[in-house]
User: What shape does this take?
Amino acid sequence: MKFFIDTANLAQIKEAQDLGVLDGVTTNPSLMAKEGISGEENVINHYKAICEIVDGDVSAEVISTDYENMIKEGEILAALNPKIVVKVPMIKDGVKAIKYFSQKGIKTNCTLVFSAGQALLAAKAGATYVSPFIGRLDDISVDGLSLIEEIRLIYDNYGFTTQILAASVRHSAHVLGCAKIGADVMTGPLSAIVSLLKHPLTDSGLAQFLADHAKAAEKQG
Ligand code: E4P
Assistant: This one.
């Protein structure tokens, strides 16, 4: 399973890249706003900066919601760097835009997916990635991981090549759940990746090894 980081924060992207396990980045308009990035030029420069840090796909979301403008925006974004994936919302014009981009060989990420029907439609339109938001489903007491299971089953039934990008991942249990089901990618905050490191027996075991080593060195000296 590929690990993407869901942020527009350059320091966090660099930290994840330096860890050696990062496969890509996803952003969205809220994440860009959180970093104070606005205005066409700043937005474009920020995507370019992300592409310089990461080895892998970088999702950049269109703001337009009508077909013509989604196409215009998406073509500008895709021309920035071959790593750019045009992120398009799951709305009627978005589905049409995904079909257009897929015919042009432009990578797409169909975002704001909350049902298996939406995921089926995204795959039919030729999306490179589909992003079901598992954390936001959990927030309304709907099991987000069950949606990943449903989509996996449907895509495998028909051999769809659209990659399941489990989004809105919040913690390490989500990451593991996605890996067990067979999601192709997960995207979440740096904390969800780093928390996979943690086990109390690792910490106590390491402390014991180092203490034993120090004692042995003391005896010898
Ligand atoms: C997906 O690409 C979105 O950027 C993201 O995962 C949304 O996550 P959130 O529900 O934590 O905002």
Q: What stands out?
A: The first helix runs from residue 10 to 19. The first strand starts at residue 2 and ends at 6.
